[in-house]
Amino acid sequence: MDFKLSNRVTASFVFLVAAITYIITVQPTFSFWDCGEFIACAYTVGVPHPPGGPFFILVGKLFMMIPSAADIGLRMNYLSALSSAGTVGLLYMISVIAIKNWRGVPKTTFDIITVCGGSAIGALALAFSDTFWFNALETEVYGFGTFLIALCIYLLMVWWEKADEKGSDKYLLIMAYVVGLSIGIHLLVVQCIIVAGLIFYFRRYEYTKKTLLFALVGSAVAFFIVYPFIVKKIPQLIDSLGVFAVVLIFGALIAGIYISIQKKSAVLNLAAMSIFLIILGYSTYTSVVLRSGIPDMPIDENQPDNIEKLISYLNREQYGQQPLFLPRRYSQEPQHTRTWQLYTSDMDFMWRYQINEMFNRYLFWQFIGREGYNQGDGVDFSKFFAIPFILGLIGVFYQFKKDWKLAFVFLVMFLVMGVVTALYQNQQDPQPRERDYFYVGAFMVFAMWIGFGVVALIDQLSDWIKNGKPSMAIASTVVIIGLVAAPINMFRVNYHYLDRSDNYFPYNYAYNILQSAEKDAIIFTNGDNDTFPIWCIQAVYGIRQDVRVVNLSLGQTPWYIKQLKNSRPYGSLPVPMTMTDEQIDKLLPSQWPDNKMMSLEVPKTAYPDSMQNRPDLPTQIDFVMPPTIRQRQGNQVVTAIKVNDIIVYDIIRANNWKRPIYFSLTVTEDNYIGLNEYLITQGMLQKIVPYKATDEIGLAVNEKVMHECLFDQPDKPYPDPHYGFIFKGLDDKNIFYNQDAERMIQTYRSLFLRLALAYSKNPATQPEVTSVVAEMEKRIPQDVIPMDYRLKYEVAMMYFRMGNETEFKQWAGQAIEGANKDMQENPANMRGSFNPYIILIDLYDGLGDYRAELEILQRVQAMNPQDQSVAQKIQDVQRKMSGGSLTPDTTKTDTTK
Asked: pTM for the complete prediction?
């Protein structure tokens, strides 16, 4: 058997298996989080969030120009899919070279099966690991970035093999250029510089403890030359010295190259040429400056249109600074204050959260098994029985036994791209989402060790059974068992959860938000998932380009506020404001009293036609605008409003009711600036109206628009205003929806419920209630997307108020089951008006099951013995049980005291 042919065939096989898998399971449009932003930026060659990714954007634009699919977003998703498959192929070839380094070139069939089989198992283990497969299916920088990591390591390994040949340093120079390009994707790739330094040392120099120490220090210095010096300091030099800085830098490099040639110093020549190529690759950032500031650019984050702004952009100044070493617990944000209660010290926090929770857990997910897909889920041994993980441990020990030098290099790479990265990021608890995608470089190294573990088993079994004699039967058997036990089992377990081939939910979610709005609307949104998908669907798919989106998180920054005010993307209208650009630049949070009254003028034309004939229409609305910042200073609590609160008020006032303005349903009440009573639900938005819209149960729904949105499903997406939601795929049991998606889907259910509640208040429309509930179940079946028991409770209580005993009992039974489960799992969950105790008390009361109601009340009393309202409620129930008033009581008991 010919090794070269077998090696090429196997490499092609693992690449094709990965490529076909990813193409079959790839997201058909775009995904949530940053994906929509990157696709929109690639389509428009725009500027994404700091520190950007210009090389990624340019390559993505190239992929969009290739007619590989009808959907533009899918074309760019193929970039991640194919580059990830390329990573799998490269990891196979890296593994082969590493194994050959201690075994020699395979000459027998036994050797070929051992080397190629073990390497293939490791590569496919990476291909079907949870995080790597996930990254391969969407437009994020991590799929392409991991490919460049693998390419750098492969070039280093090829150089290792050919270092004694003339001209072999070309592989190191190519690697340097790739590192430079990778700065325009993600800085994680720059960590390959450390690996390169160690590879160079072990191949060129004799090992001693002293020289190894020098090599480690030199590798670190080389890394710091690239980051932060080249990445951050060179732009600062250019800002300070202008063109002279460019002449100085390139003059120094040319001089270094000239001196190296004169003195025949290969190391100096290599260093100077590498720095030159890294800077050349880094030059993709010039596209950021060239594209930024173009009038009406749809996405131009931070507007880095000159070198000074580019420096701020590269330094991520928008996100603030964080300590590099200490303290580990530094955030004063309200959501992070729990770290002082949960962890005894900074070191305890560093180990238990930043290392164990934020790296070890992710590593175990890949090769032991993932407990679930909710945030914070742990490790499940029963998924893979830890077989891939055990093989990896065997592999790392075996490589150290056979070839400690390369084993040391890969261990350093694993630690730098894993634990060191986790510590450098100094992430606080909790995070908005899981961060496993940061550590794929470390997972790649561990997958390679899995392949080495297979080789170790083959060698050991041959020693034990055949006294060291090669055995094709042993090699073939171990490879087959290894394939089944590791990558094939990983594929089996992960396929359902990672298959996104029919998942159009992010596209539909963005479409439904936009199509809830009237023409030329202004929509206030809150975070990534109600903003980036909208940016994408507007820029790439041409949907509702008349709508202006105001992201309240970005609404703290002057550059974004000025863009809203001055730009007209796609020809849309600017966002009205009364402030000048100079005033916007000076905006800061402002001190604000608790009960400050604000007003908005209301012209008669702002009212609906049905109200305009009323003689008593007010000419303004008055409301209390509450503070949104509270900070203790000494013995006082200082209250203030944020910059985005000022902007929201100014936009509404400047608009003067000429264009419809909405809050997305995802926006929290603290951003409403006190206009809570002036909001009416319209699809997935809440429209600001010039009259109090709430009723006795706190609902305000535009019934006509809501009915059209929920019932009139369009046959195709419409680019112009057209009511009607797309629910495609929500009734498909084969599609997996994660925790975030399920939470958003519950929003759809809440809209059906709001419409049903609105109908239930009017005897004339009460017959429509059942059809609304039936339509909800038809569009979003419970056996596909489980329904939250709190929504079931609301449906039950709605039927109770209507006097529909049959429907009430049916829904109450379902809600009681969910509430009991929640109460058992979280017995201390007694806060809020929808805690399980309140729900059970109301439902049991409505059902007349006073014994069960009394049992829940006694539990509540045991936890709140001083609460007199609970004692009174117990007496009321006991009175009913003894034959007193049997009228069901739906008054909610306050269990929050």
From this structure: 0.93
